[in-house]
Target: Transmembrane ascorbate-dependent reductase CYB561
Amino acid sequence: AMDGAPPPTSPTGLSAYVAVSQLLGLTLLATTGAWLGRYRGGVAWHSPLRFNAHPLCMVLGMVFLQGDALLVYRVFRHEARRSTKALHALLHGLALVIALVGIIAVFDSHRTKGIPNMYSLHSWCGMAAFVLYLLQWLLGCGFFLFPGASFSLRGRYKPQHIFFGIALFILSITSCLLGITEMLLFKISDSYSHFVPEGILANTLGVLLVAFGLVVGYVLTREEWKRPPLAEEMALSMDFKTLTEGESPGG
Model:
């Protein structure tokens, strides 16, 4: 650090909660893979197993990567804001691409098997989550990543962006929970109530999804864990305000 100052550190407890979130995230991905591999035959695109790419992609993209994208501003607290923004947008974009693969998989599988689309509550919530997530990403890139939006306009939109980011994360987890239940009722409706191993494993996946969401949500809502503005960001912010609102920095 400059002038012999100690390097900046993370607030007490933040690193531990982020580590727990990543452990939960990796565990829910492993649990999803175990469920599909052990009881649903695995995943293969050019076969009837194409459908199984859907739950795997949605858990990976719409839950794990989306959650990690939300945590970027808590984890990378002292890096340049431009770099943090780019990583935030990149993770969200990757989540969208993976989720799109999952959506294509389920539509192709339904078409092949003659199953109707978009009739269940799961499909309604899931498609709403994806479409709104795409819109949120496009608006976020337009307002914050690319130049053009004024400082005051960014300031007015930022609370909405933060709120809908958390809301869409919750909606995504809810859609996954609905999808797990729907899949179990379709595949093992006769034995589900007898606490069969597949049902227990899938229910465990649901609990892990909720736990991941709660830990990420806790990190995001702790006021003292928010990313502090760097000195150069404060100066740049004041310059923007001076240019857009006509105020002097000392006014």
Remarks:
- Helices lie at 14-39, 53-75, 81-113, 121-145, 151-187, 197-221, 231-245.
- Residues 74 and 226 are 6 Å apart (CA to CA).
- The chain has one domain: 15-226.
- The longest helix spans residues 151-187.
